[in-house]
Amino acid sequence: MTLVRSSDTLALINLTDQALRVRAVAAASTYATDDLVQVLLAYMTTGSIKGARTSERTLAAYAMTVRDFVPWAQHNGVQLLRPGRRDGGRYIAHLQTRPSAGRGKTGTLSAATIAQYVAGARALYRALRWAGATEAQPFEDAHVPPDPTPGIVKNPPYLSEIDAVLPHCDPPLGALLLLCAHAGLRITEALNVRRTDIQGAQLTVHGKGGKNRRVPLGRRVRAALHELSPVSAEGHFFTWNYHQAKYRMRKAFTAAGHGESWRGFHAARKHSGTRLYRATKDFTRVGLFLGHSSVDTTRRYVAMEDNDVQNEVEDF
């Protein structure tokens, strides 16, 4: 299924204000989920802060929320254009008690997943305001209780797994893993690397939100990339989308005997952050390397060693 039906989205963008309002009101009044997804996509790509630079993964996540929230609203008597002031909280309560549907997962949805759904629902109402359909903000005062377990504990960095898995990767997959685990790239950044982005021992990374940064490449990463040939006219090294890369990497982890340790590509990025912090003891330098705008974000990427200050307190 194609996420963004460009003709539909462009048609909405090019409507007059009155025609757009009519279309959005009709979609919300009839709980037309597909039409509301298109209103959301039109808003996200033209009216949101990031506009056309909004990532495909964000668009997909928000579209998934609309496909979840709208049927729930219809089933529970919520008028989308005139929601009650407690309806946002009702939806959050519903999410908090919903069983997790992930493979091999038990219990209820995680706080991070709930936060993602709520962010999508808020975006839907921003889109409806953008379209002139309603001024309602049912999620304005609705809060998602934070997860008391730190993310670095729930999803710690890979440690020995990286070197164990690499022999089970073909050259492109091995290079992809090293880009995440040694160069600290997000998986979407790694999949978009091109030959022209490499200048000696430096890589220009086209990052989140359209931000570019320069990342130093270690010799193992340079050697892995040197083995690859571009697979597109633009010089890209990879043709996979996120799900194809995830499928291949999971197979490599399983072949290496670490199938149960697979925690996604983000744990590889945390591997690089943790190793660099242990070498530098400097969150600012690690944050610049990872492309973070806040050091507080960087702290969530570093697994601290037990008794890290033992030497410092020895002579207190």
UniProtKB/TrEMBL annotation:
Molecular-function GO terms, alphabetical: DNA binding
Residue ranges of domain Core-binding (CB) in the record: 31-129
Domain Tyr recombinase span(s) in chain numbering: 152-315
Alphabetical UniProt keywords: DNA integration, DNA recombination, DNA-binding
Biological process, per Gene Ontology: DNA integration; DNA recombination
Pfam families given in the database record: Phage_int_SAM_1, Phage_integrase
Iron keyword on record: no
Record's keyword annotation contains Cytoplasm: no
PANTHER family listed in its UniProt record: PHAGE INTEGRASE-RELATED, TYROSINE RECOMBINASE XERC
Protein name per its UniProtKB record: Tyrosine-type recombinase/integrase
Species: Deinococcus xianganensis
